């Protein structure tokens, strides 16, 4: 499956790993290449297999999910990490996303949706459950320091880059941004790349957080 989506599952409950293997394995284009039961083993699995997507539990004994996400983010060309957890959304949402995760889903996500969201994550897009998205917007709005920092960062952008950032905050793809701004997709890709460098962001999700913090996108 060299052209498929390679996935590593990290969860301290073997039954959860087995369930995810079964669900994701039912898709022809997804291959669960390994599983791990704590954060340290998860990082080792990522280094060993170089997957496209990691499904990461947060609350695990030993090295927890947040620490593992930070360590994975230090790897060159890291995979997309999606937090998969049993609780709806709490203070871990922002912490996980700021650490480098591209998404946050509850384990009650319907199997057919999970398969599609793994594909979306593998393409570098943000994946958030509705509950996590609502909590994210609320938490961003309540943080004065985050708003001030984000506003300062946005001031470094050109007007067009700020427009693209606002679109990222809405979760739009490059093709959708290109259609909205009447530009080519290649041009938008260039804007996104330069904007991520200016903002010091590792991925589109972190840029989207800045867009919300700075108030350049409506909730």
From TrEMBL:
It comes from the Bacteria. InterPro entries: CheY-like_superfamily, NreC/VraR/RcsB-like_REC, Sig_transdc_resp-reg_C-effctor, Sig_transdc_resp-reg_receiver, Tscrpt_reg_LuxR_C, WalR-like. Residues 6-122 form the Response regulatory domain. The modification 4-aspartylphosphate is found at residue 57. SMART domains: HTH_LUXR, REC. PROSITE patterns: HTH_LUXR_1, HTH_LUXR_2, RESPONSE_REGULATORY. Residues 150-215 form the HTH luxR-type domain. Keywords: DNA-binding, Phosphoprotein, Transcription, Transcription regulation. This is Response regulator. It comes from Streptomyces ovatisporus.
């Amino acid at each position: 499956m060299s052209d498929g989506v390679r996935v590593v599952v990290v969860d301290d409950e073997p039954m959860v790993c087995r369930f995810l293997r079964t669900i994701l394995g039912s898709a022809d284009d997804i291959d669960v290449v390994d599983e791990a039961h704590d954060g340290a083993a998860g990082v080792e699995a990522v280094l060993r297999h170089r997957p496209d997507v990691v499904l990461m539990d947060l609350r695990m004994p030993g090295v927890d999910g947040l620490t593992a996400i930070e360590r994975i983010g230090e790897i060159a060309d890291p995979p997309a990490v999606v937090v998969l957890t049993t609780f709806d959304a709490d203070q871990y949402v922002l912490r996980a996303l700021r650490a480098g995760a591209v998404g946050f889903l509850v384990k009650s996500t319907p199997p057919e949706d999970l398969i599609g969201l793994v594909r979306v994550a593998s393409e570098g897009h943000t994946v958030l459950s509705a509950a996590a998205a609502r909590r994210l917007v609320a938490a961003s709005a309540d943080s004065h320091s985050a708003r001030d920092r984000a506003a300062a960062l946005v001031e470094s952008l050109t007007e067009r880059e700020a427009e693209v950032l606002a679109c990222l905050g809405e979760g739009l793809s490059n093709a959708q941004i290109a259609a909205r701004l009447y530009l080519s997709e290649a041009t938008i890709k260039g804007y996104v790349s330069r904007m991520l460098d200016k903002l010091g962001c590792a991925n589109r999700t972190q840029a989207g957080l800045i867009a919300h913090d700075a108030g350049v996108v409506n909730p």
